[in-house]
Amino acid sequence: MSTSGLKAIVPVPTASDFLDIVLSKTQRKTPTVIHKNFKISRIRNFYMRKVKFTQDSFDEKLGAILSEFPMLDDLHPFLSSLLNVLYDKNHYKLALGQLRTARHLIDQVAKDYVRLLKFGDSLYRCKQLKKAALGRMATIMRRQKDPLAYLEQVRQHISRLPNIDPNTRTLIICGYPNVGKSSFINKVTRADVDVQPYAFTTKSLFVGHLDYKPPLEEMNTIEMQSITALAHLKSCVLYFMDLSEQCGYSVEAQCKLFHSIKPLFSGKPTMLVINKIDVTRLEDVHPDTRAMVQEIIDQEDVKCIQVSCHSEEGVMDLKNKACDALLAHRVDNKMKGSKVNSIINRIHVSQPKPRDEIVRTPFIPEAVKNKKKYDKSDPERPKLLRDVELEEGGAGVYNLNLKENYLLANPEWKMDTIPEIMDGKNIADFIDPDIAEKLEALEREEERLQAEGFYENSTRTTNAKPKRPPSPSRTRSARKA
Questions:
Q1: How far, in Å, CA of 187 to CA of 173, rounded?
Q2: Per the CB 3.0–4.6 Å rule, which of 90, 100, 183, 277 could disulfide with 309?
Q3: 28 three-state secondary structure
Q4: How many domains does the structure of the chain reveal?
């Protein structure tokens, strides 16, 4: 599930609106007129129906809310962590739990008062029991004012989130403020992120774009959970650095931030992006500063690329290399999986041993080399069955001729209708070349049975079983007949 799947949640009414909806529905959908002259059984059923219908309406509305809001444990780890960051999973679970409890209490109230209504002995008593039942249900719902208001705020906020699919491959852009992350997004995507020459210009959430401001040891719980959520994505990490220090942070501080968050992205392809090379390149910095940066570059799974989002130097090259690294990482992970080993064990590539000193190079027939590639716009292209289908009316009209590929001595026979009987004989008999011999054997068997008196016993009934099973040739001939 992606965040787009969370946006289909219907609005959550307030507690007062909830009561108005349910009680007005009960008034409209159930009978409203009763007379004191009715039999007591009819009066009881009248008010029992009111209570049951009200309970069903509450149950339906609360069940719809509980089913549409997702369970955090059933979501993708990224979405679960994201909802925990935004809404606090303890408050979220508590709100849903209170609504479940309210639904259970309403069901219990309805059962108790329906049981009491069965023993109501007058119109007045039945009416008072009905009022008490609906009053207790309404009291239970009024106590759900805060959970309903909280869930409605969650629903509204979810609808404003960007569409994030945690199963797609992602580029995570991170670094200190004002190092050029938003400028890079504007260059390689259709996003329109506000860019200004001062820190903290980006104030809202953009897909795959978050600022990690303080070092890891100084981050609060929310910031830690944000990074943990991103760690669940299939992603390539782009860490932006500004060696000119125009961002307001020293190179040493930027290197420390990288080392602090690197363990959270272990196993992911990582690229160190040195931005603003139109101002300062890696070759221009002090040797001590360069040594700190080189320590990052020398790590096994880190690649370095220098770009300038101002002059666009190296921007598209960075995008292509990041996407290639992400795809290569995906293939490597598949090759490391358990399924690959079970398949590789069944594959054997044979290498023929030379039997003499003659070199035998791979041979490709000329017909294959000269074969023209199919071009739909070429009038001399080979005619495909698809072309024939379009010429003869298209799908639903065209009927495939299965007789066209018959191999017969005379091609003109292809479209002939095959008869079942010809010259007084069954055509199926000609399929078996030994049919004449089998028929003669059957006739000899019948003559022998007749000579032995097998058919002369008048006491034999039609239901009696023969002393021996019929021969296969006899059974087959009977089936053909």
A1: 13
A2: 183
A3: helix
A4: 3
Q: Are residues 68 and 117 in the same domain?
A: yes
Give me the domain span that covers residue 279: 170-338
Same domain, 333 and 293: yes
Mean pLDDT, all residues of the chain: 79
Other Cβ atoms less than 10 A from the Cβ of 127: the count is 16
Retrieve residue 144's tokens.
């759900």
Residue 461, H or E segment: none
Looking at 212-216, 225-229, 391-395, which range is the least confident one?
A: 212-216
- CATH number of the domain where residue 26 is located: 1.20.120.1190
Cα–Cα distances (Å) from 156 to 10, 33, 129, 204, in that order, read 10, 42, 39, 16
Helices (H), 69-144: 77-87, 89-117, 123-142
Distance from C-alpha of 85 to C-alpha of 82, rounded to nearest angstrom: 5
305 is written with which tokens? 């690329």
Domain membership flag for residue 403:
no
Instruction: Report the C-alpha gap between 152 and 245 in whole angstroms.
Output: 44
Q: Are residues 66 and 149 in the same domain?
A: yes
Do 248 and 152 fall within a single domain?
A: no
Its pTM surpasses 0.70 = no
Instruction: Render pLDDT for 93-121 as a digit per residue (tens, 0 to 9).
Output: 899 999 999 999 999 999 999 999 999 88
How does pLDDT run across 52-80, given as a tens digit for each residue? 999 999 999 999 999 888 888 777 777 77
Q: Specify the range with the lowest mean pLDDT, choosing from 160-164, 307-311, 314-318.
A: 160-164
